[in-house]
Protein: DNA polymerase III subunit delta
Organism: Fumia xinanensis
Amino acid sequence: MMFDQIIGNGNTVRTLQNAASGGPLNHAYLLHGTKGTGKRMLARIFAQAILCRGENRPCKTCSACLKVEKGVHPDLVMVQKPEGKANILVDQVRSLREQVYIRPNESGYRVVIIEESESMNLSAANALLKVLEEPPGYVVFILTANNISALPETIASRCLCLEMQEVSLYQAEKWLFSHYPDGEAAILEDALSYGNGNLGRSIAYMEEETCRQGFDRALTVARSLTTEREYDILEALSPFDGDKDGFLQLLTDLDAMMAQVAIAGTGSTNLRQAAALSQKIRPMQAVHIHELTDEIRSKILYNGNGTLMQNLFCARLKTIMER
Ligand SMILES: [Zn+2]
């Protein structure tokens, strides 16, 4: 991938592109924004551009670029959550600290990418802080975070913070149709609807069966609202009984769908599912459902009882639809 393949987010992309092609290079960057907005991809392109020995960085052809691509460049250090773990652990940060003090082997820089940096536990974050405070001059840190508020302020304040945002539906549509030229139009349309401007979510829809199931389930719940019978809503929600994670995912998926329904209600969509739902769900009702999904999601995350929340959700949906 190259810088110009990142959709939208012009200021962020230009800042990194200039920094990698001779502009002032900071010692630490923090790319933050919702999951699926392309932070991980941009972090890799930026790292490759810093290490590149060619022109028009990243040139994709020099030996440094090829090594980054293969994941074997000795001056690129990657830190990620270990598989199946919820946190980046202090041992990982200690090991990266050791590597940081070794001078670069092949390029003028040693680049460290820390993905989902907000998942560092407290001791890992403290260990990182020590090296962030006085890093060797040849080190560039690139942190990514889905949720910047979960990252200690002491870390964020030592980085140049750049936000990655979701893109317009128009940009997402153009990107999707050009990257999946053989994709069926109806499926691409649902992927667009599922992502609602979040390209990562749209790509996941194209690649992962579970996302398509999520879309179908959200659609079933949305359709149950249009009958205004409480029983139908309860039945549509029944697959999530005792499945807190599944229910949280439904809230996210239904939320994205309601954003489309609200737009469709003002007559400016070509997404057929949203257009059909907007015949029965008015824009204001879609907005109220959006607020409700937010509220229920935070209640569950603050240790709410999943089953109780599900019943509350059902009752409140019915009230919204009766207005
Ligand atoms: Zn290169």
User: Anything to note?
Assistant: Residues 244-265 form the longest helix (22 residues). Residues 52-54, 58-59, 62, 64-65 surround zinc ion (CB under 6 Å).
